[in-house]
Amino acid sequence: MRFTALPAPLPRGVRSARPQDYDRIAPLLDAWWGRPILEALPRLFLDHFHASSLVAEHPDGALRGFLIGFASPSQPAEAYIHFVGIAPSERGSGLGRVLYETFFEAARTAGRTMVSAVTSPVNTPSIAFHAALGFEVSSPVAGYNGPGHDLVTFRRRL
């Protein structure tokens, strides 16, 4: 089963991403993370996976958050969340959970039974968030993204 679109209706203030959203998201990344992170989200993710990704906005159009995810083309039971960003003013509001649950439903509907993701070991808020959502959290995997680039992996059954 294909995973090319999100379920309808989407939660209020949440919509499918569009390729042009990259130009709104990119300038915010380093500020939202408090460190250089832009290179972790190349434009290609919104060019090629926008139909399975989400954007959350205020009624005035201001960006609240986003989730970039897709169905794995190589692992037929798996969906992957590549990048999630929540505006600092929205953290703790439940928006992250809304985006993840919406993505989980789309993955389930497409016949996917597992969702995975990764993060840097220094991103302790992300590690805690994923654990609270029921993800299995690994210890840092040495060299996951090449020498000196350790990452923590997350897996959650749907």
Number of strands: 7
Give the biggest sheet.
7 strands, mixed
Strand portion, in percent?
A: 15-25%
Order of helices and strands: EHHHEEEHEHEE
Helix/strand/pairing class, anyone? alpha+beta
Strand order of the largest sheet: 1-2-3-4-5-7-6
Count of alpha and pi helical runs: 5
Give the N-to-C terminal Cα separation.
16 Å
- Average pLDDT score: 94
Work out the radius of gyration. 15 Å
What does the overall shape look like?
globular
Annotate the secondary structure layout.
Layout: E1 14-16, H1 22-25, H2 29-33, H3 44-49, E2 54-57, E3 63-71, E4 78-86, H4 95-109, E5 114-119, H5 124-132, E6 136-137, E7 152-157
Parallel strand pairs: 4-5
Antiparallel strand pairs: 1-2, 2-3, 3-4, 5-7, 6-7
Task: Characterize this entry briefly.
This protein has 158 residues and is of the alpha+beta class. 25% of the residues lie in helices and 25% in strands.
How would you describe what is shown here?
The protein is an alpha+beta fold and 158 residues long. 25% of the residues lie in helices and 25% in strands. It is built from five helices and seven strands. It has helices spanning 22-25, 29-33, 44-49, 95-109, 124-132, and strands at 14-16, 54-57, 63-71, 78-86, 114-119, 136-137, 152-157. Strands 1-2-3-4-5-7-6 form a seven-stranded mixed beta sheet. β3 and β4 (78-86) form a beta hairpin. The chain is globular.
Which characteristics define this entry?
158 residues, alpha+beta, seven-stranded mixed β-sheet, 25% strand, globular
